[in-house]
Each structure stands twice: as C-alpha cells, then as structure tokens.
Amino acid sequence: MRLLAISDLHVDHAANRAAVEALPEHPEDWLLVAGDLSHDDDRIAWAARRLVERFAGVVWVPGNHELWTVGDGPRGEARYAHVVRILREAGALTPEDPWPVLEVAGERVVVAPLFLLYDLSFRPPEVPRERVAAWAAEAGIRSADERWLHAEPHPDVPAWSAVLAERAEARLAARPPGRLVVLSHYPLREDLVLIGIPRYAPWCGTRRTADWPRRFGIDVAVSGHLHVRTTITRGGTRFEEVSLGYPRHWRRARGLEGYLRPILPGHGRPFWYWR
Asked: Which of 110, 141, 156, 261 is a plausible cystine mate for 242, CB 3.0–4.6 Å?
C-alpha cells in the first residue's frame, strides 16, 4: 500500500468536481486530505463519499472553508462537530477518531490528523495582533475568515487555536510508536509560508507549532491552505504542501491523479514546486 495526500479540492468549482469524479480507484492506498473540500455541506458530503469509494482509507482534517458558516447554521465548535459527522457518515477518519496505525512498505506508520487553527502570530513584530486586519487591508488583503469563520464559544479564533494546540500537544506526547506522519491544514512553520501575498500570512498558522517536528519526532508533516505545492526537508522532517487549489492553480491535462502526492513510500526529492 501507499500513503498519498491531497488538499484544497474546493469542489465548489465545476472543474474540481470533474477532477474528483474522474479519479481512478486506489483500492490498496490510503489518502490523507488536508482540508478545504468546500464550505457547503452537500458538496463536502459528495466529495467525501467519492474519495472514500476510491481508497482503502481516507483521513481528513478541516480547513478554514469547512468551518465557515455562510448564512444560518451552527457556528464555531458546533460547526466543526457538524462537519465531523458528515465525514464520519461518509466513512472517513477525522481528528476526533483514534489515529490509524498502518504498515507501509514494511514500516509501522502512525498517522496523526490534527485540527489546528491560526492565531495571527505570523506577522511582523511591529504589527500588534489587534491591528492585523487593518494592516492587511492596507495592501488590499481581506481574509474571508474574518466574515465567516466564527469561534463560539471561544472569544476569538486565536483563543480557539490555543485550545486546539494544547489538545494536539497532549495527543502527540502520548502517541504510539512508529514513524509519525502529521496531517494538518496549516503549515507547522512560518518559514514554509511561501506565498506571493505576505500580508495574508497571519491567517496561515501559529508559531506555537514551530518546534513540534523536533519535539515530537515528526517524520513527515502534510499540509495545504497555501495553494503553493512544495516539498521541503528541514531538520530531518519532510514538509509536504499538497494543495490542488482553484482551477487556475492546476493543469486539467494532469487530472487529479497527477496531483496526488506520495507521502510514504516518499519520492525523496528536495525542494520542489509541483506544477
């Protein structure tokens, strides 16, 4: 079996839905999905079912889009619990389930799906947290999360992020033995945020996770969100950004199959931009 990964399928777009529909079966492989299927319940369920039908197992973590409440409906933690139910009904594993322990190429592998958020700490030191939105707006950057991602019952998203990080640290500290593959929507390190709009970086993670690769012995860290596909190895950890992205971010001729990233057995390449 192989461990493959993809993120940011954004099936609200017709081209992305067609790519998911055309994906061939992988009956022996597991798929890691690093969030952002959609913000719409029906499309989240549709995408989850299609992926579960095609793989031996699917492990999912939420992106910011799944957490959006556009219009009426549950917000914050209630929204997350609602989406977890959708994924479980489709047959996928979530951060609320026991971590799968797999045998890949003769090795014991622990897959750790983590629900993490951002805390606006990816910002210049001279910009106080309360001014981040205004600072970004000066460059024409406005995160849709500020409108649609709610934090109830927490006072704000950074507060929720702190709670989630504490929970994740406790689970990582008690993990079973084996090679450790961590799955999250956001990159674990600020220096991995390689985007052309630097004032969007505050919505891309938290500095609290920077030492996790060394501290917890993470072999591979899989993430999405950036829509910039990269493979970067630092300090003995391989960091894989595995986004598909919006239709303008990928080539139809390759199909979704061409963007499934091999995690284990890995490709062994150093820095790479996956076109």
From this structure: 261
Chain center to CA of 90: 18
Distances (CA, A) of 51 to 26, 30, 40, 62, 103: 10, 10, 17, 15, 21
Torsion angle, alpha carbons of 87, 88, 90, 91, to 10: 120
Distance between CA 198 and CA 179 in Å, rounded?
33
In DSSP notation, 216-265 reads HT-SEEEE-SSS--EEEEETTEEEEE-B--SGGGS-GGGTGGGGPEEEET
Pairing of strands 230-234, 237-241: antiparallel
Look-up of token digits 């389930």: 97
Stated pTM of the model: 0.96
- Can you read off the two tokens belonging to residue 142? 């406005």
Strand pairing class (107-113; 220-223): unpaired
270: pLDDT strictly greater than 70: no
What residue ranges define each of the domains in the chain, with the CATH number in brackets?
A: 3-273 (3.60.21.10)
Report the pLDDT value the prediction gives residue 269, as an integer from 0 to 100.
56
Percent of the chain residues past pLDDT 90, beyond the cut:
96
